[in-house]
Design goal:
The chain has about 120 residues and is an all-beta fold. The protein contains no helices and eleven strands. Strand 4 and strand 5 form a beta hairpin. The termini are far apart.
Length: about 120
Amino acid sequence: QVQLVESGGGLVQAGGSLRLACAGSGRAFTHYNMAWFRQPPGKEREFVAQIVFSGGSTDYADAVKGRFTISRDNVKNMVWLQMNNLKPEDTAVYYCHARKFANTYWGQGTQVTVSS
């Protein structure tokens, strides 16, 4: 069982930055691939970024490449999403996600609102 708690969301102007944090607890957090997803208002949840359990490989959605950076610290059981040059279309609830084989876990989400 893995528990995930997100923080760091808020209201920011376009062009600004936010850093989301995901605190993980439970067994073998370091064995899980971690990701961020988001759900814009009225839309389905979508992939944003992922990082493998070792931290050695990352992947990003085209819409955020070059602006967002995912990172993790397996000693602290933390995952971050640094978001720069935010745009109004980045407005969404952001969710932390953990996956190992068929086992998946979600956090409760944190709201990010970008004003134009």
